[in-house]
Design a protein that fits this description.
- This protein is of the alpha/beta class and 494 residues long.
- Helix content is 30%, strand content 22%.
- It folds into 2 domains: 290 residues, FAD/NAD(P)-binding domain; 187 residues, 3-Layer(bba) Sandwich (FAD/NAD(P)-binding domain).
- Strands 1, 2, 3, 4, 5, 6, 17, 18 and 21 form a 9-stranded mixed sheet that branches. A 5-stranded parallel sheet has the order 7-16-8-9-12.
- β4 and β5 form a beta hairpin.
- The structure holds flavin-adenine dinucleotide (FAD).
- The site of flavin-adenine dinucleotide has 31 residues, from α2 and β4.
Length: 494
């Protein structure tokens, strides 16, 4: 790095990419645990919130409860399932309370990240939105909080005849503000959490709304309230206590559901399907439309507050078709069984496009990084990539539970490095790890949504022994990560 260049570079101890839930969590932990460290959050959007800013389709809300999706350290005071607006308000309060605003740079898109072993630094090239100028940042540690999917566009399969359709085709991720669906026939392709959110929010305004699904999904209807939280609040118990007690209650209940999904999947399946039947009545073909072939929780269980999706169907405002698309036509979609589903608007609720490492081009000492060749260290760091952590949350439990655990782990790592006077930490396979089988980043037998399956070959590998495994299990990791031995030889400190 020559003298001229150095003057143009802004340096921070820690560079955080993203100002969504995970980036803000990283900021909180850095500020609290290391008041002396400098850090910056580089965010390509105009504001904070990530997922909750990107998505603005009708009804957008969480499908996790906010007692566990909220931070461990900031009480949630609302109902369990929250709208995007409520989540953004919660994060807005965090930015004020934790004095984090001054650390965020908006419209800063990180395009390249280069590690130099000589300088022991990351150098980032960053495109600044306002002026399109390129800025350079350097930092000792790179904390990747960029999420896991492409924020610019969602995933839309190519179906035959799409061009011939005369109406609007919209993806929930890029919902046009001006879209008017009043008294229109709307066809929603897909039956995941997004479809389950959109349909009840739109049903009363549309002429009719139809959910077209290739195969059914499990839905868990329940009231959007937590009785224990209500009781504690009525007793004027401090919000911090209520938050912690209700978190423990919810985590305990979820642990039980997870156990049952593995040990007694049939009984759990029957309960979920019976719950649908209660809303839809005995005449409804629950067998065909709401009985999935997979084990509960192999994909995220879609929670529906107060059974709102089922209520829309029972009221005749919404309906479900379980069939495959043969072709789009001028007026709608023709299914493989020959049904023509007429529509003015087609919503493709077909999911995300996985985006690995925020679309950033990585180099280590000038060599392009092939991320798929690296092994994950506990689903946090990656072999032969120095001073870098990536926050990848849970699928089944709330993402934030893992963001918090990772933040605590990274802070412990920083303390360890300070105690040992080291500037660089690199996960590296030990002799005994050399012949590990290369297993997929996420075990497809355990969790297999489409967006992951489509891109798994681009993700790092995991092995079959510690610490080269990514457990995706909060109940194991909450005890293991805080105790993880940093001196087991898999982390090389220099
Ligand atoms: C509609 C929807 C609902 C969801 N509901 C839940 C839920 O209820 N519970 C749950 O646990 N999970 C849920 N998830 C998963 C959700 O993405 C995470 O829970 C969480 O919000 C992710 O936070 P994050 O900060 O890690 O990433 P994100 O929210 O994805 O934020 C990352 C930020 O980094 C920015 N960024 C990316 N690349 C770059 C770059 N190169 N340079 C600069 N900035 C960059 C992005 O623009 C974005 O603002 C949901 C996801 C979606 C899409």
């Amino acid at each position: 790095m020559n003298q001229q260049n150095k003057q143009d570079i802004e340096h921070f101890d820690v560079l955080v990419v993203g100002a969504g839930i995970s980036g803000i969590d990283a900021g909180y932990h850095l500020r609290t645990a290391f008041p002396g460290k400098s850090f910056v959050l580089l965010e390509n959007q105009d504001s904070f919130g990530g997922t909750w800013l990107t998505h603005n389709y009708p009804g957008i809300r969480s499908d996790s409860d906010l007692f566990t999706f909220g931070y461990k350290w900031k009480p949630w005071t609302g109902v369990p399932i929250a709208t995007a607006e409520e989540i953004l308000k919660y994060l807005d309060e965090v930015l004020d309370e934790q004095d984090l605003r001054k650390h965020i740079r908006y419209q800063h898109t990180v395009t390249t990240a280069s590690w130099s072993n000589e300088d022991k630094l990351w150098t980032l090239q960053v495109k600044h939105g306002d002026t399109n100028e390129t800025k350079t940042f350097s930092g000792n540690f790179l904390w990747m909080c960029q999420g896991y999917y492409n924020h610019d566009r969602g995933y839309v399969p190519e179906w035959p005849g799409m061009q011939s359709f005369q109406g609007d085709i919209v993806h929930p991720q890029t919902w046009p503000d001006e879209l008017d669906y009043t008294d229109k026939n709307v066809l929603v392709i897909g039956s995941g959490a997004t479809a389950a959110t959109l349909i009840p929010a739109m049903a009363s305004d549309c002429k009719h709304i139809t959910m077209l699904q290739r195969s059914p999904t499990y839905f868990a209807p329940a009231p959007n309230r937590n009785e224990l939280a209500d009781q504690l609040r009525n007793l004027d118990v401090p919000h911090e206590w209520t938050h912690e007690i209700v978190r423990r209650q919810i985590l305990n209940d979820q642990k039980e559901i997870t156990r049952r999904s593995f040990e007694e999947p049939e009984a759990l399946k029957t309960e979920l399907i019976d719950a649908a039947r209660q809303y839809l009545g005995s005449e409804y073909d629950v067998e065909k439309h709401f009985t999935p072939s997979y084990r509960p929780w192999r994909q995220r269980l879609a929670f529906i507050p107060d059974g709102d999706l089922f209520q829309g169907i029972a009221a005749g405002q919404a309906s479900v078709v379980t069939d495959e698309i043969d072709t789009f036509t001028e007026r709608g979609v023709l299914t493989k069984s020959g049904q023509l589903l007429e529509a003015d608007i087609i919503v493709t609720a077909t999911g995300f496009d996985l985006c690995i490492l925020g679309g950033i081009e990585f180099r280590i000492d000038g060599e392009p990084l092939n991320f798929a060749e690296s092994w994950t260290y506990r689903g946090i760091m990656y072999s032969d990539i120095p001073n870098m952590a990536w926050v990848f949350g849970y699928f089944r439990a709330s993402w934030t539970l893992r963001a918090d655990l990772i933040a605590e782990f990274v802070c412990r790592l920083f303390n360890h490095m300070e105690e040992n006077n080291s500037r660089v930490v690199t996960p590296r396979l030990r002799d005994e790890d050399q012949n590990m089988p290369a297993l997929p980043f996420v075990d497809p037998d355990n969790f297999n949504p489409g967006y992951l399956m489509r891109s798994m070959h681009l993700m790092p590998k995991q092995g079959d022994n510690e610490p080269w495994v990514f457990k995706q299990d909060y109940y194991t990791e909450k005890d293991e990560l805080p105790q993880a031995d940093l001196d087991d030889g898999a982390l090389i400190f220099e």
